[in-house]
Amino acid sequence: MLEFENIELYIKDRLLFSSGQVKLDKGLVALIGRNGTGKSTFLKTIVDNRHSLSSQIQIDEKPLMEYSSEELSRVIAVVYSRSQVFGEHTVNDVLLLGRTPYLSPLRGYSEEDHKQVRNVVELLEIQNLKDQVFNALSDGEKQLVMIGRALVQDTKIIVLDEPTAFLDVVNKQRILELLAKISESKLILFSSHQVGLLARLCDQLLLIDKEELNLFTNKEQFKEIIESSFQIQL
Questions:
Q1: Which residues pair with 208 in a beta bridge?
Q2: Is residue 153 within 8 Å of 183, Cβ to Cβ?
């Protein structure tokens, strides 16, 4: 599904990391590493600056540089750690924006678009939020809605940059458990510092350490890998 090979990621003249071949299929994949190792930079490169690494990143064996912006928006949905501002738009309006990649100048939202929103509202159990103004929600509720918008976008890959960064402990766990459930049918790639929950919930770990990006797939080793890399006791 998503494949990297022989990547070298730089900021100016400083090497952040290099990698060998990494291939990711559906499941929940955490991108971890200490501050300044390049986690957010890498995710932004995949989504927003793909041409700088075009020859080394592929989706379904097609180089990323060959996707138009419209095509890419039907393959990858993005959720950032800080929610956007949507004026007086309701949660239902924000969720509908996930269908934008499928609109054309000749048609508005279809019944299928509205059905997608209803299905996601039910999945996330946010029926009580759908008519509320998005900007009036709590941080945890906003993040839940932004994940919902990514689901409404109906892509095979969802990329999230620090999705639990500004949430309390209860909402951190709720969001990660939700992502684990969603990843049964999609590839969910997210960066995180919340390493305490990852060993239990993730299918794979992408670790940036000592200027190298490596993939680990043996869940029995995750706890040891996290403790060794971050010098903590889980």
A1: 33, 213
A2: no
